[in-house]
Amino acid sequence: MLLFVVRHGIAIDREDPKCPSDPERFLTPEGLKKTREAAKGFAAIEDSPKLFLSSPYVRALQTAEIFAGELHSSKSKIEKSESLLPGAEPAAFFRELSHRKSLESVICFGHAPQLDELIAYALGSKRDLTELKKAGAACVDLTRLHPPAGTLVWLMPPKALRKLAKGK
């Protein structure tokens, strides 16, 4: 199974007086634009995954919806997963995935540093090996789901994804 991991785009700053509670933080206009460009770049190199899983937080769901749109997938394909919330244990995510073994590909949307911990766990490392930037993505080829075993296929910062969108 290919596991695509995407960090949410640029969200409203916690220090902004208009900032809502953390679960309700949303993408800024710049975050929407840059995330859409990154999603276009992702769509230039990958097919639409069979399953979309997202943290229930607004900024992650917005990112998932943008990616679904650029991948010509229905937003109704996006499922919320508590195992992608900040602070969630990576093992819980892989237990959830193990019930869906027959899928060829899954894309998940969440938060730092939890997604970096998830990637490290999939690679069998006790420490983080990546640092996903906002709207950045990674691809892990999983040979086993529980416990996970995989290989990092690629890691793309959002700037590289945006360049792919422009054909550069």
Query: Strand order across the biggest sheet?
Result: 3-2-4-1-5-6
Task: Compute the number of strand runs.
Answer: 6
Radius of gyration: 15 Å
Beta-sheet strand percentage?
A: 15-25%
SS-based structural class? Answer: alpha/beta
Poorly predicted runs are none
Total domains: 1
CATH topology: Rossmann fold
CATH class value: Alpha Beta
Which series of helices and strands comes N to C? EHEHEHEHEEH
Q: At CATH's second level, what is the architecture?
A: 3-Layer(aba) Sandwich
Chain-averaged pLDDT: 95
CATH homologous group name: Phosphoglycerate mutase-like
Q: How many DSSP H or I helices?
A: 5
Helix content: 25-40%
Distance between the termini: 29 Å
| Global outline | globular
Largest sheet features: 6 strands, mixed
Report on this model:
- The structure is a single chain.
- This protein has 5 helices and 6 strands, in the order βαβαβαβαββα.
- Helix 1 (29-45) packs across helix 2 (58-70), helix 1 (29-45) packs across helix 5 (158-165) and helix 3 packs across helix 4.
- Strands 3-2-4-1-5-6 form a 6-stranded mixed beta sheet, with helices on both faces.
- It is 33% helix and 22% strand.
- It has 168 residues and is of the alpha/beta class.
- The mean pLDDT is 95.
- It has a single domain, classed as Phosphoglycerate mutase-like (Rossmann fold, 3-Layer(aba) Sandwich), CATH 3.40.50.
- Strand 5 (137-145) and strand 6 (148-156) form a beta hairpin.
- The two termini are 29 Å apart.
- The chain has helices at residues 29-45, 58-70, 90-98, 114-122, 158-165, and strands spanning 2-7, 51-54, 78-80, 105-110, 137-145, 148-156.
- The longest helix is centred in the N-terminal third of the chain and has 17 residues, at 29-45.
- The chain is globular.
